[in-house]
Amino acid sequence: MDPCDCTNEDIGGHDGSSDFLEDLQDSRAADTAEVEELCVSFQSKYFNLYPLYQDYQEYCVQAESNDLNQRNTGFLSTLTIPQELETPIIDYSSSVNYTSFQQLSNAGDICLAEALPVRLSSLWRDLEEVKASGLLTRLPEEELKLQESMFELIGSEVSYRNSLTVAVKHFYASKELKQSLTPMEHHHLFSNICQIMAASKKFLMDLEGQLEESVLISQVGDIVLQHCPEFHRVYVPYVINMRYQETMVNQLLQQNGDVLHLIENIESHTDCQRQNLRSFLALPFQRITRIKLLLQSILKQTKPDADSKSNLEKAMAAVHEIVTKCDKGVRKMEHIEELVYLDRLLDFGKMKSVPLVVSGRVLLHQGPMRHSCFSSVYLHLFNDLLVISSKKYWFQPAGFTVVDHAEFPSHVKVKHAQTELLGPPPDSFLLHLYKSHSGPPTTMKLAAETRSDTEVWMKLLQCKR
Description:
Layout: H1 8-11, H2 19-26, H3 32-40, H4 53-70, H5 112-115, H6 128-133, H7 135-138, H8 141-172, H9 175-180, H10 183-190, H11 193-213, H12 221-255, H13 257-267, H14 277-281, H15 283-300, H16 309-345, E1 346-347, E2 363-372, E3 375-382, E4 385-391, E5 400-407, E6 412-416, E7 429-433, E8 442-446, H17 451-461
Parallel strand pairs: 1-5
Antiparallel strand pairs: 2-3, 3-4, 4-5, 6-7, 7-8
Helix pairs in contact: 2-12, 8-11, 8-15, 10-12, 11-12, 12-15, 12-16, 15-16
């Protein structure tokens, strides 16, 4: 289901996530003049010192891995989501090496710039203005490391903008590619990447502006904090759209030979440096998570009584909230997609149908159940509804014929059943529907395929919500 096809109620709640749809609908394609403005109106003085962000990320991950191996610790850490939520929200393993919000390499206190080859980065201490200031001989080693960490936020943003420029200039603005796609396909493919590039431009200008005022970087937390509202506005809809973006890429590359040829031609341009389209589309997702890690590194090296600590902590919290919003938004869209799919499968026949796509509804569990020795039913348990159905025959369209349904949990109760000589196997349970569509109270003796499945069903059906 397309996020643009959902209502605010479908996506939203009371946590501000209803803004997702507004953000997605406000994402409009920039014209040629706007693209030109984004690409050439501001050029960092350090752009020649940094590679494309894909290469920067690769070296960063390698540096982190080496550092963590030396410390003999695990290489995964929780970024935003509690550990009990183990399923990655986005799985793009078929394309590039994406990571989930829950599992991301932790930068720790390593200064990544120091681990990069000289040709790929510049250290703060290598800047001519820093050398001329005499600070290198006056500052203690701890302060020098802090300066490098703060400068890395600037340098990595330069690298990020270098890649965004290539993505917008060569892929997004390609006239041939636009002519080969419908407006909807083009939107799904690139989403609001121009807005993200504009936000990066403003962010980098402020970071470099502070460095122009003084080569001794006082703090970066205040600048990050200042830009977080804009980051929220542009990054959240982009990450939510990545599900449809990946689907679109796969469809185009597999089913449209002309588009495949166009994309391969663009990828062969020297500016792309052998990076493919998927790697450019992954940039915003990778950047918003990396910013938090960079802030963590800076905070670890900041003295507890430093004036900059307060804004650093606030900035980290603000970025954390953005990443969390991204995660929640993706999960909500997954739930809506699942409901839309089930709505097509469930056939209510002559009985009054129940609209499944309802705000806040989530599928909790589903599966077959033994109803008697010779029959079975299929249960779909939602957080507010229980649907009992039977699978359609092989000669019918795939799906289920609904037998009954009831509100959950108010009209549903379960308890263990006594074992009988004939009938369902041990570990069966009684399902009571106090009020259902069929009218009078109904009791069914059910058993899952395994004892563990039965326990899962019992636990879920006994839950008071």
